[in-house]
Amino acid sequence: LTIISEIVSKLLKKFQKPKPVQLEVSGFLWFYVFLTGASVSALRAALMMSIRTAAVLLDREEDPINTLALTAGILLIKQPLYVMDAGFSLSFAALLGMRYGRILLMSIRWIPYRLRRILAPSMGISFVTMPLSLWFFYEASVYGFILNIWVIPAMEVLLMSILATLGLSWIHPALGQGFAVA
Q1: Which residues contact 24 (CB under 8 A, 6 or more apart)?
Q2: Region 44-53: what's the mean pLDDT?
């Protein structure tokens, strides 16, 4: 959802001022969340984006950890049993791992800086989510962080291609099919 919101935001900012764009992107995200079934991880992403939007509109500085904690609190008030949900735990753990795992792994000086910068977010996510994956699913991927190095950057290109295909198919189905095949 973050990638989708960034793409939509960049497109809309070319045509209008940033603050109205933030509201439109938040509205689009909530529409998308409910269109896709409102899973707990999608609710988390949309709620965090809405809190960031509120911070921008109120000219406040948004703190990622406070946003994460407020989001968790709101979701747990809505449904306390989310605590037992794998999607809830893994979604929040991945964000914490990306933020704090990156800080921890970037402090390892014997690994070249460029390599640390590439590996740190993926390894941080993997290290933090691995115990939860073992808890919920009784298995963990030992090569997941290597795949994330390739998958995370590729997702933006893939999503942009999907959105372009959808846009072209609204103009004419053959255009969308042609773009999808290419």
Answers
A1: 8, 12
A2: 88
